[in-house]
Amino acid sequence: KRLVVLVSGSGTNLQALIDAIGSAGPEAYGAEIVAVGADRTGIAGLDRAARAGLPTFVCQVRDHDSRAQWDKALAEATAAYEPDLVVSAGFMRIVGKEFLARFGGRTVNTHPALLPSFPGAHGVRDALAYGAKVTGCTVHFVDDGVDTGPVIAQGAVEIRDEDDEDALHERIKEVERELLVKVVSRLARDGFSIEGRKVVIP
Ligand code: GRF
């Protein structure tokens, strides 16, 4: 299967996918990364892609007249690589109608909280501020809401008294990377269907 991975930041989730595919081989893993897309330049995620020899594309909101045009450009840039699955791995933008029309139902996102708790851009900070004792990460399909799509898998992480946002996020990301790598491989190898909110993997 063909994967396009979208990133906005350090790209450690992308790296985990690159490493897993590299060590298992694309056939055993079930998928290969055919391109990495970003919504900004100068991020470690793009460097990681380049180091792995992967094609990259950048689609910046500010280079477009409207959000809708940006969304269309992102959809077109993604479509050029003919992906079977899109992985939003720390991609900090909400995709729009055009993107969802083409890739809805096959775009996977990873979020650093146990949804439906703490959606949005500050899932780690919000869980800490709330005083939650357990948080974690959620791998889910993207729909037209903010972190509201059908859940594929979750991993739990305990919050420690001494945690700050960075320390907690790092522990979440360890679980998150492993979960994402597993989920993407299963989806790619075994196929899936989405029945309402339920994701069925045979
Ligand atoms: C992940 O925790 C992701 O869920 C969040 O941002 C982080 C991205 O990390 N929204 P990286 O860029 O993959 O290192």
TrEMBL record:
Residues covered by the Formyl transferase N-terminal domain: 1-184
Family assignment from sequence similarity: Belongs to the GART family.
Protein name per UniProt: Phosphoribosylglycinamide formyltransferase
EC number of this enzyme: 2.1.2.2
Catalysed reactions, as listed in the record: N(1)-(5-phospho-beta-D-ribosyl)glycinamide + (6R)-10-formyltetrahydrofolate = N(2)-formyl-N(1)-(5-phospho-beta-D-ribosyl)glycinamide + (6S)-5,6,7,8-tetrahydrofolate + H(+)
HAMAP family given in the database record: PurN
Protein species of origin: Streptomyces uncialis
Top-level enzyme category: transferase
Cellular component terms (Gene Ontology): cytosol
UniProt: (6R)-10-formyltetrahydrofolate binding residues: R67, M92, R93, I94, V95, N109
SUPFAM superfamilies assigned to the protein according to its UniProt record, in alphabetical order: Formyltransferase
PANTHER family reported in the protein's UniProt record: PHOSPHORIBOSYLGLYCINAMIDE FORMYLTRANSFERASE
Molecular function in Gene Ontology: phosphoribosylglycinamide formyltransferase activity
Sites where the protein binds N(1)-(5-phospho-beta-D-ribosyl)glycinamide: G11, T12, N13
InterPro entries in the record: Formyl_transf_N, Formyl_transf_N_sf, GART, GART_AS
Annotated site residue numbers, Raises pKa of active site His: D147
Active site annotation, chain numbering: H111
Keywords: Purine biosynthesis, Transferase
Reported function: Catalyzes the transfer of a formyl group from 10-formyltetrahydrofolate to 5-phospho-ribosyl-glycinamide (GAR), producing 5-phospho-ribosyl-N-formylglycinamide (FGAR) and tetrahydrofolate.
Pathway of action: Purine metabolism; IMP biosynthesis via de novo pathway; N(2)-formyl-N(1)-(5-phospho-D-ribosyl)glycinamide from N(1)-(5-phospho-D-ribosyl)glycinamide (10-formyl THF route): step 1/1
GO biological process, one term: 'de novo' IMP biosynthetic process
